[in-house]
Amino acid sequence: MGPVKLIAPRRFADARGWFTETWSARHFEKLGVTTGFVQDNLSRSIPAGVLRGLHFQAPPHAQAKLVRCARGRVFDVAVDLRRGSPTFGRWVGAELTAENGWMLFIPVGFAHGFLTLEPESELAYKASDVYAPETEGGLAWNDPDLAIPWPLAGAAPLVSDKDAQLGALVGFESPFAYDCDPLTPLGETPLTP
Q1: Residue 107 falls inside a structural domain
Q2: What is the pTM of this model?
Q3: Within 32-188, where are the H helices?
Q4: What's the total number of domains in the chain?
Q5: Known active-site residue 61
Q6: Is residue 171, in this structure, part of any structural domain at all?
Q7: What is the pLDDT of residues 87-140, one digit of tens each?
Q8: In 3D, which of 138, 144, 145, 174 has the Cα closest to residue 51?
Q9: Which position among 27, 125, 131, 178 bears the catalytic label?
Q10: Host domain of residue 59
């Protein structure tokens, strides 16, 4: 089980709809997620094709994230930025939807980004540290060395001016140390807490 984890919380459904626990420290600990979260965020993107990222916060305010799609559909990505990691610069990604309820746990040392695949998509995520703009960093979403196959269907994404200025992996000096847990593929079946 690698550092980035694809998780499918259990849903309890009946004729009225369904219920799920989106966070339970006791249940997630069984999956190796022992992060203390201090902040919840909600990102809403109105049109499809909005691309946000690839973002991170450096120490002393580095953030782990637990990401889920609360509405719509997104392609969510994590990129290994831990210096000395045998998987430095590699990425994993998954389609997160309100319907499937899947989550992506992204530990400290990874950049995060996502592309909205439907209009009115919302991404909800927990963060392990507060927002600290002075520690913000990122990489270009279209860096050829990362070669992320964003499902754009030939269209140009909607990117913020700030994200359009992010740099390349080449020459990037990572503030993150490798923790001896290489990035592994997410697999076809998410983990269940």
Answers
A1: yes
A2: 0.94
A3: 161-164
A4: 1
A5: no
A6: yes
A7: 999 999 999 999 999 999 999 999 999 999 999 999 999 999 999 999 999 999
A8: 138
A9: 125
A10: 5-12+19-177
